[in-house]
Amino acid sequence: MKHLPPRRAASGAVLAMALLAPWAVPAQAQSASPSAAAAAAAPGPQQFTLANGMTLIVQPDRRSPTAVQMVWVRVGSIDEVDGTSGVAHALEHMMFKGTKDIKPGEFSRRVAALGGQENAFTTRDYTGYYQQIPVGSLEQVMKLESDRFANNQWPDDEFKREIEVVKEERRLRTEDQPRALLGEQQNAAVFTASPYHRPVVGWMSDLDAMTPEDARAFFKQWYVPANAVLVVAGDVDVAQVRAMAEKYYGRIPSRAVPARKPRIEPPQRGIRRIELKAPAEQAYVSLAYRVPQLANIDDVNSDAWVLVVLSAVLDGYSGARLDRALTQGPDRVADSAGAYSGFVGRGPQLFVLDGVPAAGKSAEVVEAALRAQVVRIAKEGVGEAELARVKTQWVASETYKRDSVMAQARELGSNWIQGLPLDASERIVARLQSVTAAQVQAVAAKYFGDDQLTVATLRPLPPESKPRGRGFAAPAGEMR
C-alpha cells in the first residue's frame, strides 16, 4: 500500500500535478524541456467504454519504448462499513495471491521476468494496480491483470498469513509513528458521519477479527467492470490497445455497480481539540478546518479553487509565507510549517495548517502563529507578485509532469475516479490562474473560525527504554 504523508492524506491524488508538483518545481522553471515539448505535441488521451461497461483510457507517448498499465477501481475505505475497516487495503494485498491459473506470488515474478515493475495502492477513494513494462510485454501484463480482476482466489491460509503482514504494516506506519497516529485520531475527531473517520489501513481490532470471507465479499461486491478504469500510457497504438482491452478485459462478465447511500457529514458547531502523548523528539500541532470541496469542475464560483491558491500562498514554494514568518530569523517559532487544502474527493475536504515547534517553543505558540498568518491575509490581502509566483509554478508543473508516463497515467486514472473529464488538468490550472488577490483575501476571512476547526496536538514523552514487543515477525518481502 502506498501511503500519503499524514498532512496530505486529506485529498485525493487528482491534483498531483497542480497541487503537489509545485513543491518540487523550481520557481524559475518557465520553459518546457525538449522531451516535455515532444509530449505536449503528442496526441491527447482517448476514452472508450468496453462491451461490459469498463472504461478504457489510452494516452500515446512515443518518446520511450515503454508502457504503463493501470487499473483503478472506484472503491476504497470510504466504501467500508464499521467492523470491517481496512478490508479494501487487505483485499489489495490479496490480489497478489493468485487466481485459478496463477499461484500466490507468481504475478509479481512474471512481471519481473518481463523486465517490469509493479505495485498497488489503496486510499480512501480508490484502489489502484500498475505495471511499467517494455511496450512489447504489454499484452502479457494485460492478460495477467485482467485475470486477477476477474478471477482473484486464494486459500484461507494465504489470507491468515497476509493479514498479519497488514497488521505489522499498521504497527510500523501508524502505531510506531506519533504524527501518523495523531493524524488518525484527528480524522476520527473531525468526521462523524463520513467514512473518512476510519483509517485506510483499518483499526487493529477490525484487522484482528477480519475473515477471508470479508475480503472475498468485498471483491465480489466492488470489483465490477463498470466500477473500474483501465489506463494505458506510453509507446502504444490506440487501436491496438483497444483491441487487446476488449480481448482481455471486455470479456469479463458485467454486473451492476452496488448502490451507494449518501453519508452526509453534519455541520460542526464548535472547536474540537485532541491531544496525544507519545514518545517523540518534538511536539507537533495540526489545525484542520472544514472547507468546501469542488463538486463540479464547471463551477467557477466555488471557493474550493481559491482555497487551493491560499494554501499555495502560505506554503507553495520555498520561502513562502509560513516558511518566512515561522521558521526563519532570530524570532522563529517553528522548525517547519505547512498548509494544504483538500480540493476534490468522494468525501468532505479539509484545509490543514501544521507545524513543529522550534526548541523552547510550545505547540500553542505555533498554533497561534499559524492562525495569525491567515488572519493577516484576511486583513491585508496578498500581493500580485505572490500570486504570479504560484501560478508560474503551476504552469511549470503541468509541463514537467509530462516527462513521466507514470505521472500521466496516474493523473488520468485519478481524474476518472473523481468523475472529471480527460482535459481536467489543463482546465484546473487555467481556472487556478484566474483566481484574484481579492478572492484569496475573502476566503481567508470566511473559513477559519473556531466552529470549523479541529486542533490535534502531539505532546512528546521521553523515548521508551526498550522497544515495544511484537506479537508477530513480519515475513520478508515488500509491504504494499
Briefly note the CATH topology name of the largest domain.
Answer: Cytochrome Bc1 Complex, Chain A, domain 1
Text of the CATH class of the largest domain = Alpha Beta
Structural class: alpha+beta
Largest sheet: 6 strands, mixed
Protein name: Zinc protease
GO molecular function: metal ion binding; peptidase activity
Region (Disordered): 460-480
Signal peptide: 1-29
Task: Give descriptors for this structure.
Zinc protease, Cytochrome Bc1 Complex, Chain A, domain 1, disordered N terminus, 40% helix, 17 helices, 5-stranded mixed beta sheet
Give structural notes.
β1 and β2 (55-60) form a beta hairpin. Strands 1-2-6-3-5-4 form a 6-stranded mixed β-sheet, with helices on both faces. The chain has 480 residues and is of the alpha+beta class. It has helices at 16-20, 34-41, 87-94, 106-113, 138-151, 156-175, 178-190, 204-209, 212-222, 238-248, 303-315, 321-327, 363-380, 384-400, 405-417, 424-433, 437-446; strands spanning 46-49, 55-60, 66-73, 117-122, 127-134, 228-234, 272-279, 284-291, 334-341, 349-357, 453-461. The radius of gyration is 23 Å and the shape is globular. The protein contains 17 helices and 11 strands. α3 (87-94) packs across α9 and α5 packs parallel to α10 (238-248). It starts with 15 loop residues before the first helix and ends in a 19-residue tail after the last strand. Residues 1-29 form the signal peptide.
